[in-house]
Amino acid sequence: MDEPILDCLVIGGGPAGLTAAIYLARFHLDILVVDGGKSRTSWIPCTRNHAGYPDGISGEELLQRMRDQACKYGAKIEAEFATKLEREGQSGLFTATWGSGEARARTVLLATGVSNRRPPMDEELHDDALARGLIRYCPICDGYEVTDKRVGVIGSDSHGVAEAVFIRSYTADVTLIAPDAALKLGAEDQRKLKEAEIDCVDGPAQAVALAGECIVVDTAEGHYTFDSVYPALGSDTHTQLGEMVGAALAEDGCFLCDDHQRTNVVGLYAAGDVVHGLDQIGHAMGEGGVAATTIRNDLWTKDPRWREPVEELEQAESGS
Question: How many CA atoms lie less than 13 Å away from 24 in the CB half-sphere?
Answer without folding.
Answer: 30
